[in-house]
Structure to design on (114 residues):
């Protein structure tokens, strides 16, 4: 069924798996401990916390306001990458982020008047 299919980067941790040609068996290869810790944190802490927060927001405010988070999350993720992970800062991305923040502010303001 999965003959010939193989994931790249088998030694890269949680996402590193390979499907063997014979019998479509799946084998997980070991990866570095920090990758497994990050994966565990994401699955056991971040995902349930995000789910709980989103459900609370659905009860606490309007859907129009909640939907704007989808636009703000990439901006916050980029800023965290620049500040915490020393990723390169690009002025063009700052312009795009400004456009996103303006659009979100406009959406919130429009939702208040409807």
């Amino acid at each position: 069924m999965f003959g010939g299919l193989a994931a790249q980067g088998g030694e890269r941790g949680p996402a590193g798996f390979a499907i063997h040609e014979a019998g479509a068996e799946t084998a997980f290869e070991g990866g570095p401990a920090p990758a497994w810790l990050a994966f565990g944190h994401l699955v056991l802490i971040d995902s349930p916390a995000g789910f709980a927060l989103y459900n609370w927001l659905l009860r606490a405010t309007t859907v129009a306001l909640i939907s704007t988070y989808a636009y703000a999350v990439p901006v916050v993720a980029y800023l965290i990458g620049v500040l915490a992970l020393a990723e390169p800062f690009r002025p063009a991305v700052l312009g795009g982020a400004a456009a996103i923040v303006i659009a979100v502010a406009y959406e919130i303001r429009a939702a208040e008047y409807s």
Notes: The radius of gyration is 20 Å.
